[in-house]
Design a protein that fits this description.
The protein has about 260 residues and is mostly beta strands. The protein has one helix spanning about 10-20, and strands spanning about 25, 35-40, 45, 50-55, 65-75, 80, 85-90, 95, 100-110, 115-125, 145-155, 175-185, 185-195, 200-210, 210-225, 230, 245-250, 255-260.
């Protein structure tokens, strides 16, 4: 992926590329456009009615972009996106010249219920220009899609802060547990979130007899409140008698995850 965020910290760069895990590229990889999106973790909290999202065209050709906000749920170990009207993007469609940037407002039409986190996915699609071609490759049709998570907090919840969790920290409301299960001839790491806020998992490791084996060096994925998600374990992972830990949300330190 060619997008580069201006943050200098290596840790922040790892978070950047992890948070963009839902980005997909359809068709030709030789695009004349390259879109940078920031922030990569927008939130709406407190009395706020919206948040700014910037789209920057770092390519060599104009780009037409459509921004949509979809409801985000997790069922059957998969992400489910659906239409909603609680949060809207304004303007929804923009044209951005090379080297220019465009402000998009993500506007909350009504507050989240007290003590509730609402989860959304912001999809930014590069629209195929008229004529069905893009760039110098005539006849080649493709579309870039970018996806950024958006969380909206009701009264009593706030966005996570960098550092270890405290009693008042949102990260303390995450309640994770795991189990290893066999299905379809493969071993899976299944995680359940019994908390009231999402868990973004990165730098996930199994430790056995003092030896630490990475399940995921960067982002593993998200587990929304009340949801179960699972991931195929790499070959050679411990079969049992291990401990599991991960960086959760904005915590700087690793957090132990208990077995179910």
């Amino acid at each position: 992926m060619r997008n580069v965020h201006p943050f200098r910290s290596l840790r922040v760069l790892r978070r950047l590329f992890g948070a963009l895990s839902f980005i997909g590229l359809l068709g030709s990889a030789q695009a004349a456009t390259s879109v940078l999106i920031w922030p990569i973790n927008p939130v709406i909290e407190g009395e706020g009615t919206g948040v700014a999202l910037w789209l920057e065209n770092r390519g060599s050709a104009p780009v037409k972009l459509q921004t949509r906000v979809l409801d985000w749920k997790q069922q059957g170990f998969a992400d489910q996106l659906g239409a909603q009207q609680n949060v809207v993007a304004s303007p929804p469609i923009v044209s951005v010249e090379p080297g220019k940037r465009q402000l998009i407002r993500l506007i909350r039409r009504q507050p989240a219920p007290p003590g509730v986190e609402q989860s959304y996915r912001v999809l930014v699609d590069e629209l195929i220009p008229e004529g069905g071609t893009l760039g110098e490759n005539a006849g080649v049709q493709f579309q870039m899609r970018y996806s950024v998570p958006l969380f909206v907090y009701g009264a009593g919840l706030a966005a996570p802060k960098d550092g270890a969790a405290t009693a008042d920290d949102k990260a303390a409301a995450v309640a994770l547990s795991y189990r290893v299960e066999n299905d379809g001839g493969r071993r899976w790491l299944r995680l359940h979130n019994a908390g009231i806020v999402h868990a973004r998992l990165s730098e996930v490791r199994m430790t056995q007899n003092g030896k630490s084996t990475p399940v995921a060096e960067g982002l593993l994925g998200y587990v929304l409140p009340g949801a179960d998600m699972r991931w195929v374990l790499p070959e050679g992972m411990p079969a049992g008698g291990f401990t599991l830990d991960a960086r959760v949300n904005e915590r700087s330190d690793a957090q132990a995850i208990g077995a179910q």
